[in-house]
Amino acid sequence: MSAAGFEPVIGLEIHAQLLTATKAFCGCGARFGGAPNAHVCPVCLGLPGALPVLNRRAVELAMRAGLALGCTIQHRSIFARKNYFYPDLPKGYQISQYERPLATDGELVYEADDGPHATRILRVHLEEDAGKSLHVGTGDGDRHTYLDFNRSGVPLIEIVTHPDLRSPREAADFFVRLRAILLAIGVNDGNMEEGSLRCDANVSIRPVGTSALGVKVEVKNLNSFRFLQRAIEHELVRQSEQLNAGAEVVQETRLWDEAAGRTASMRSKEEAHDYRYFPEPDLPPLEVSDEWIADVRAGLPELPDARKQRFMRDYGLSATDAAQLADTAELARFFEATAASAGNPKAACNWVMGEVTRRLKVEDAGIEAVGVSPDALGRLIRLVDTGVINGSAAKSVFDHMYGSGREPDDIVQTEALAQIGDEGELNEVVARVIAEHTDAVARYLEGNEGSLGFLVGQVMRATRGRANPKLANELLRRTLAD
Q: Is the pTM of this model over 0.70?
């Protein structure tokens, strides 16, 4: 049964680990991995008498995220202690922000395949990550619980949207754009497999045409765009089936089981009072000055959507090409340097999105590991634009350049790849091709235009790809018209 007759109402809560060397409230390392409990201290463990000290760098990164999302940075925010006793929080409480968050009232405006979207941001607040309670895979998990506090205290921001999203695809698109922004501003590494970026979806449905919100179900810890979309799709069908059967949707927290393709109940959903929030007794209010906010704002880099618009305006690129190139700062810088060297932005775009990207996919590497410099690639493009070599030979030159450090001019000379543009030399090849392929010539003379393409290909083959294709086409037409 589909969710026909009901409107989805979706809000997201994204937890993003901040790129700091140390934890939120102590000097322990915040890096991923390590032996269990290798990066802990009395503060991480929540031992009595251990005093937390706020990481200034974490505050700056959180402000950077808030400003990039159009939020207002609050001059005074309060840390709270969130208390609950569940297996996913062995310390028993979490330092977070509740009534007075760091940043509020933002909006993310972005382009998706189906047009422009705008999603309001309710809040961006600082908090610490929780430790882990391990039961599965320990050999005796039926009798013992193993605790690992390595992630306890790792600094996070939680980005909470308003329930503005109306489809699973829209939710996934929002998460994609948000991740791109967090990467662009250097706040988060985007590594969802290691859990440094994860998403909870608050999903409800209501009859089409009504405005009251339905009962909200939270689907936790979704660590891929595909999982987020699939989990919401399933949850919308599950909730509609409940209502169509005359049952009620229960407010609860559920987990997505990718193998089974369904959500499963984890626990009943708590309200805020169930967490027994109270002001964190060991941390004073966080005071942020106008000067500090201005400094952080001044350090924000260009955001992907702004870069996309600039690429379309300044380089004449299509929306699709501009979006792909603008998505990461490293790829954008490589393209712009190549375009500057080549003097031909469109050709630079084609090479970066074509041969360069193809090689990187084969090597499973990022643009920082590319085996050719933007300046050298630009000089290769100029060789094509000035007619020294044709497109076919350019790919051969590129392959010789890649990873070798060789100059394109030297490769053209040593490999004898210069384009043949002399009519006399090409006329000899054209005459030979015509004599050897009389059937194709007859078909062309009978009106089969495609046969001319075959003959041009034979000229290219006979010259090992060095013939000027345009000139070869002209000479064939001229000769066959006589």
A: yes
